[in-house]
Amino acid sequence: xxxxxxxxxxxxxxxxxxxxxxxxxxxxxxxxxxxxxxxxxxxxxxxxxxxxxxxxxxxxxxxxxxxxxxxxxxxxxxxxxxxxxxxxxxxxxxxxxxxxxxxxxxxxxxxxxxxxxxxxxxxxxxxxxxxxxxxxxxxxxxxxxxxxxxxxxxxxxxxxxxxxxxxxxxxxxxxxxxxxxxxxxxxxxxxxxxxxxxxxxxxxxxxxxxxxxxxxxxxxxxxxxxxxxxxxxxxxxxxxxxxxxxxxxxxxxxxxxxxxxxxxxxxxxxxxxxxxxxxxxxxxxxxxxxxxxxxxxxxxxxxxxxxxxxxxxxxxxxxxxxxxxxxxxxxxxxxxxxxxxxxxxxxxxxxxxxxxxxxxxxxxxxxxxxxxxxxxxxxxxxxxxxxxxxxxxxxxxxxxxxxxxxxxxxxxxxxxxxxxxxxxxxxxxxxxxxxxxxxxxxxxxxxxxxxxxxxxxxxxxxxxxxxxxxxxxxxxxxxxxxxxxxxxxxxxxxxxxxxxxxxxxxxxxxxxxxxxxxxxxxxxxxxxxxxxxxxxxxxxxxxxxxxxxxxxxxxxxxxxxxxxxxxxxxxxxxxxxxxxxxxxxxxxxxxxxxxxxxxxxxxxxxxxxxxxxxxxxxxxxxxxxxxxxxxxxxxxxxxxxxxxxxxxxxxxxxxxxxxxxxxxxxxxxxxxxxxxxxxxxxxxxxxxxxxxxxxxxxxxxxxxxxxxxxxxxxxxxxxxxxxxxxxxxxxxxxxxxxxxxxxxxxxxxxxxxxxxxxxxxxxxxxxxxxxxxxxxxxxxxxxxxxxxxxxxxxxxxxxxxxxxxxxxxxxxxxxxxxxxxxxxxxxxxxxxxxxxxxxxxxxxxxxxxxxxxxxxxxxxxxxxxxxxxxxxxxxxxxxxxxxxxxxxxxxxxxxxxxxxxxxxxxxxxxxxxxxxxxxxxxxxxxxxxxxxxxxxxxxxxxxx
Length: 944
Fold this sequence. Notes:
The structure is a single chain. By secondary structure, the protein is mainly beta. It has a 33-stranded mixed beta sheet that branches. A hairpin with a 5-residue loop joins strand 43 (about 865-870) and strand 44. The longest helix is centred in the N-terminal third of the chain and has 15 residues, at about 50-65. The protein is globular, with a radius of gyration of 30 Å. The model is unreliable at about 1-45 (pLDDT under 50).
């Protein structure tokens, strides 16, 4: 059976079962991926829609591109094959995702973290809501995206390209869509853990409305769309402080052997008999477990006006706005154990060198009612004009985008009394579970507001807040602004002669991170001369107790932390220490890019074709950062700092594509690639130290100066790469491909010790030093290494085996990646962040007669994950392998009064796969364990 040209057109314009008929295909700019497939032999006309049409479009993009590219196309207007953009991208060959708060957000391309890739929206570089360049995909609704292309090999005209790959989110212009569409979508969702926190939701919804139309004989087109989501996530998260070795060389667990010398430091210890088995065994140092409830709310609107008065002139004006609010409620009890004042009682159990169960006395728990709130507004607008005259094509593009983001990371504390040394104390049983987490058996009732008060149970932060802080607020805000201009000129050279293209682009980006931090102190305690006052939780603030059953704890007192914090009960004492001032920054980049490219297009006498391109991109960067040098606590000494650098790199590339008869294609690519440094690593800010006792020294290794911070003179990551792909296509919807890649990173960015000039820095105390240089630990360009791997991918319609199997199909991939890069010279065994050696995914589907069903699985082996630490700082931990299973089923009415109505049911994470991290060298020592449950979705869609 063959597909005719009219069948192909129907496949593109028809739609199928779907739940997300929404605004899509809305923003216009240069579209890099080619969507047109070559004509097939005439035969029986077949119309495919929905997921099968999306597969055909993705296969056509891969087949016709001159680069190595992976693609996802929407099944219907505003309906990507998955519930979110991140989940859809994670199914592509060689790509995978890390889940944050249960959502796929951090995308690794070919084993490299998001620092090495770039994300474009219709060919334009984007501002980001995070602190760096990596796009957080939650900012872009899946309902508004028509397709996603991932370029694994670059070409000279790809401005803003990444080193590991370039992700381009695409939308289709209204005149290209070619017909009127009015679409409605509504979906409800339910998460299986239920309402883990008092006052939160386990049900959510999303809806969208789209209008696409053409006027004036198809010379004017508009697209208007709006999408709204209110999506909950509920999960249990265990966290261990760490696992120190138990030490009996002290008076608590050992018997002092007096040596008769004046100093007790010379004494040795013999373990007490009841603790002899504990000596050297690993034990949990402390625990900070929570139940976390997240509510993501986002409203997005897009508008596109397209004017095409003649075939030679095309003008597109577009705009996008997104209002984003992500509120998290976290409740749990933090237990300082071995690393606190708790005492291990005799009767414990040691298993394989780990103390796995026993009892602690003298436990002073910190009852936590915490909240994280992120609010962000993103604005984007662009104008694109393209004009054809004879063999020439001239196009210009101007765009502006901005994001304003504010975070509130709030901690509030309660407990039995103020100060670590004051009771009442808990006697706490503990035992390790099979998944490496711990359960606890308390004697105190943490749900009783008559026993638990607002206070500082451990006395943390007493140098800033007398009596200890009663909470903490980290309040960073970010602004990110990007202005871009671009001009491209192309000339067709004639049949079998290819095309020449040149272009120039200018980007100016300013990003600023402003930090504010506050220690919360109860006003009643501040008024107490002894600073030893605890306060009962106001009755009007109390909520029902929150159960902590996964910890073995029946419940804990609960209240709205944000509501209480701003009720007037606390003083907000501003932090003034170096850790505050040394982490704010501003970074400005001005980038001028130019390129020249020759496109190869030669048809051989036997019908085979040679395509590709050869070219070079020249990138000139002027980067600058300002910040503060800060030293000391609780009140820092500060000084203004600024620095920058200019550099230029030439990035040549070659791509060759041989398309043979019989459906075979061979691709070869060689390129020099670049990724600019993380913006927080480019900060001018420095946390410096000064030791007045070393002021007379003239030896640089004994200098009184020291510190750590960023480096505004950082150069980018640079790599030389080679790619090879061998592909076999079977008709319009099936292929198998084997690809290999090799990248040699000439440099890698990591922290190193270097000499720093402290001229002009204030001397915090003591005499003027003999030296104005010192050793600091800052980010620098160091030695790189090799990254290489192979990818096997396939998409196959079972109709190729038998017409009786029409509608059935499979697709999937498996990739293996190795690296010789040492990202942390101080720890050579540390793996590359984001790198899983093995990544695999697969989908089986059926779609016909309006019915659709599919099941998908994706797997990644262990990797070094990136998480948020204290405040908003990033930390890295080793994550265990994970396998995630999703499924969906749907039906769209094909005729009658209900024609156009679709029903869809989905289930995500069907096996309730956790996210888990562990100590280096011992997978049984769990650090983080997060269980998200299953997300169920049910929706209706209707289109006219």
